[in-house]
Amino acid sequence: MATFCRALLLATPPVHVAATLVPVPLAALSFAQLPLFVAGLWVLRAANAGIFPLGQGRLSALADTVGSAVDSDRWSSLFRLGDLPSMWSVWCAGEEKRVGTRTVVVGHRPVSEADAYVAQKFCDNRIVSSKYTVWNFLPKNLFEQFRRIANFYFLIIFLVQVIVDTPTSPVTSGLPLFFVITVTAIKQGYEDWLRHRADNEVNKSNVFIIENAKQVQKESEKIKVGDIVEVKADETFPCDLIFLASSSTDGTCYVTTASLDGESNFKTHYAVRDTTVLCTDEAIDSLTATIECEQPQPDLYKFVGRIIMYRSNQEPVARSLGPENLLLKGATLKNTKKIYGVAVYTGMETKMALNYQGKSQKRSAVEKSINAFLIVYLCILLSKATVCTTLKYVWQSNPFNDEPWYNEKTKKERETFKVEFVFTDKTGTLTENSMEFIECCIDGHKYKDCISEVDGYSQTDGPLKYYGKAEKSREELFLRALCLCHTVRIKQADQVDGLIGHPECKNTYISSSPDEIALVKGAEKYGFTFLGLENDFMKIRNQKNETEMYQLLHTLNFDPVRRRMSVIVRTTSGKLLLFCKGADSSVFPRVQQEEIQQIKVHVDRNAMDGYRTLCVAFKELTQKEYDRIDRQLNEAKMALQDREEKMAKVFEDTEADMHLIGATAVEDRLQEQSAETIEALHAAGMKVWVLTGDKMETAKSTCYACRLFQTSTELLELTARVVGESERKEDRLHELLMDYHKRLIQDVPKPRGSLKRSWTLSQEYGLIIDGSTLSLILNPSQDSSSSHYKNIFLQICLKCTAVLCCRMAPLQKAQIVRMVKNTKGSPITLSVGDGANDVSMILEAHVGIGIKGKEGRQAARNSDYAVPKFKHLRKLLLAHGHLYYVRIAHLVQYFFYKNLCFILPQFLYQFFCGFSQQPLYDAAYLTMYNICFTSLPILAYSLLEQHITIDTLTSDPQLYMKVSDNAMLQWRPFLYWTFLGAFEGLVFFFGVYFLFQNSSLEDNGKVFGNWTFGTIVFTVLVFTVTLKLALDTRFWTWMNHFVIWGSLAFYVFFSFFWGGVIWPFLKQQRMYFVFAHMLTSVSTWLAIILLIFISLFPEILLIVFKSIKERSHQTGIFDLPILVSYKRIENGYVKTEDALTNLAERYPLRIL
């Protein structure tokens, strides 16, 4: 058995190894444990290959279960999904593998001719975002729909009517249920068909694979790991590729990752140094190499690997691989004719797929309230059934009855009305992603220009404005620093992606950072123009129109921990210069202290104005210093272990003892009315969190500009810069969390009411956290005592006015939303974004808003609502959210009310027909009541009602808080509507009963039959519930008039038509001429009118009373349903009496 199991395990190796079976501890397992062990391994292997769509959490739990079953800690740890390769290293001889790595054979060519190539087992390149297939649509969709309590409830009613002998036809409940289920299935099926079509567009798109030195066209889904793929300009990368070569001689390419992290700027990627010359099909096909890299993981900004290249008669050459060498699926190639890359991650293992959050069914508070009400009514129905059944047998067993009795019978309601947390992206959502150079400061002297932009090109409207003047040499040094210290590249006007330059501008600047483009353009305004990089030489044109050449020796790239970047250049005279720019907190500690004060004043002022500030410094290097730096940098770049830490140390030593030159101010333009919208959301009691993939400095400046952070807000920071990169960073994180928690507990008053009220009272603190620190909090190391980090972090967040999360991967955005959504009290969350990187958080939130931005329509397609701009969120929530809630709450209560009025007379009728189950209403009336007679008026009300104008709701955010606690669907209003329905049901039945008891109601002395009795009750019922809705309507349109009066007219017409024809398919013509004959009696007319008036009299009396009270006291303006729905507005939200008085004066309308 053990040998058989080992053979099974070797049948599907996850990595390419020359496997030789060696003794393994399988023999130590018992006979009963072996099947479970093998089955568990197969399930985990299938899940790892993408066959079973199991989540990471379920896989880990399965691994633990299997490991525990075989009673071995070793097996339990090996079964972990991320550690599968290490399991093979136990069973297989050969080269030892690092835990969590994979080996990719480039081009599927063996390393040497003597080796036999074994095909590798990785998942294919298909992307699946759809939910259904042709085969599972019907059962899966029905299962999802009948998981809803309301649908399941009516399904049971229908089955009871089908199985049990009932007096009513199953059609009365089956037809409405069938209609609802069918319409919902068609809608969901159509939406999933759109997802299938989108998947097919991606999976069936054509790509070019290099095979045998030729281009072979294949469908994208057929790409395998190890294939060499050619991608051309403006094409999207079909999978995650290692960049091998490009059409550019320097081995670079430019990509946009807007669909991944929201950044629409160009990013520079670099080919492997030794493969840059392989820029033809024949050359790239000659490459023999293997790639060792980490297993798939969702972090977009991390990648570790190495490529080993084999050449004949030479030693293998190894080169390190980093994120700059990885081209991610979903990114788009720009400004480069073509590139070659080898596939390392495909299909559902790509970083984009791992960051995709699957769709889940959302349940709103309205649905939860409906479910609770249905349970109450179910109990009532069970009680009624019990009573009627008991009384039936009591009646039939009565001894005075000397003859036996004979029975002669025939998805989205959304949470826009009670949002408590708003999660928003930054780039393209809050901002226009358009940077403009505003001013600069050189040696404490301010320089500002009157600049405007036309069609994206800068123009000077007048002379430069100087506020004091620095030395000429310092001015030129500062401007040279702006022209040299960046990663900007020049794009010729006639290059591949078809952009046409400005008539007076031959070149276009491209960079991964819009700030850098703005700074280069700013230097151009002052007379220094960057002309481009060619063969490692940077060219600039100075104010004298002379060209200067600088050799670019090293670029010390920006990272969020250092918060600065530097370049080392050599002038034509041989002088070595280091230019550095970065955040003030990063640059100031590394310059001469006496140079700081005069520039710090300008930096602080610009930061308070919401501008993005950068400081510029330099220093001159000796040849000896440069040689040391060059050697250390090359050693750090070649390190396979701790590469980032080693390079950071070299950067730290290099960027020291510099001289401060000046500072810049750049404006990131906000979208129109973004700040006003955020202020309105705050005033409405919502907390706004910004989740972005941008750098902290960029996001922080935007938060100040859009007034998420106020100047008085004290910021708490949990970032890599504060936590540090040492081995004890978790201890440091623990200290910060406890310190912030203690400070907030002392400074922020404890809430005495709801969470929302406590938020409104705490306006002092804001929190900033980055992605790496969030990973420590949500996924602490196993050997640390940090399992409670998440709870402390969540408490800190809830006590802060606003939270900024920067450097977030898409999956981390969804984790943040899920963390808040699952906290105590289950607050309602809303996510808004414009790119594919926002889809996960949009799907995770209760309400998802997609903005139709420049980054495609992925967010809009996966959202619950789509809006053109962020400013429209204000109207959507404050106006339409408020109105939606009032409408839907009235609809829910009205449906329960009218059906209670409908069913109660039938229940009472059983006491007068010997509990024989004789129906009170005709079967046609039972079927048509909810479908035709009473459905259209409430539908029109739910679509059109406006108890307060949209402009008023938009301009007064505090009105939103009146409905945000789900007040109209609490138990008090529910009991009010239930009492009203019970009262009117009693009036309908007993009113007709007492009128009929001692009077024939016919001139000839004949007595009406039971069908006439039921028809009169039904007529009073239909007219009363319809007129009740007419009394509640405050916004009348022609549609309201048409459906209300039209529904009553249709009922009368149908009754005449139904009773005026002998229907051959009916066994009994019991309704023939009943309605017409009934109306021949004047007494019947008077009875109907009187009973309608009595039923509506409490409502009419309430309206009159309210009107008199408003005129005499100028206070309460709400109806009883609202008065019993809305909770008292305590001090701390709004001043109660003043708010109600002002509201009554401004809006003399009766809500609901």
UniProtKB/TrEMBL annotation:
The chain positions of domain P-type ATPase C-terminal read: 860-1107
Reaction catalyzed: a 1,2-diacyl-sn-glycero-3-phospho-L-serine(out) + ATP + H2O = a 1,2-diacyl-sn-glycero-3-phospho-L-serine(in) + ADP + phosphate + H(+); a 1,2-diacyl-sn-glycero-3-phosphoethanolamine(out) + ATP + H2O = a 1,2-diacyl-sn-glycero-3-phosphoethanolamine(in) + ADP + phosphate + H(+); ATP + H2O + phospholipidSide 1 = ADP + phosphate + phospholipidSide 2
| Active-site residues, record numbering mapped to chain | 425 (4-aspartylphosphate intermediate)
Checking NCBIfam families in the record gives: ATPase-Plipid, ATPase_P-type
Q: At which positions is Mg(2+) bound?
A: 425, 427, 834, 838
Domain P-type ATPase N-terminal, by residue range, is 119-173
Q: Which residues form a coiled coil?
A: 619-646
State the similarity comment: Belongs to the cation transport ATPase (P-type) (TC 3.A.3) family. Type IV subfamily.
Q: Which residues are recorded as binding ATP?
A: 425-427, 516, 558, 581, 612, 692-694, 807, 813, 837-838
Q: What is its EC number?
A: 7.6.2.1
The answer, when asked if Signal is one of the entry's keywords, is yes
Enzyme class, spelled out:
translocase
Instruction: Tell me where the signal peptide lies.
Output: 1-19
Kinase as a keyword of this entry, yes or no, is: no
Q: Where in the cell is it found?
A: Cell membrane; Early endosome; Endoplasmic reticulum membrane; Membrane
Domain P-type ATPase A span(s) in chain numbering = 204-332
Q: Which GO terms describe its cellular component?
A: early endosome; endoplasmic reticulum membrane; plasma membrane; recycling endosome
Q: Which GO terms describe its biological process?
A: phospholipid translocation
User: At the top level of its lineage, which domain of life is listed?
Assistant: Eukaryota
Membrane topology term reads: Multi-pass membrane protein
Query: Could you tell me what this protein is called?
Result: Phospholipid-transporting ATPase
Q: Which UniProt keywords apply?
A: ATP-binding, Cell membrane, Coiled coil, Endoplasmic reticulum, Endosome, Lipid transport, Magnesium, Membrane, Metal-binding, Nucleotide-binding, Phosphoprotein, Signal, Translocase, Transmembrane, Transmembrane helix, Transport
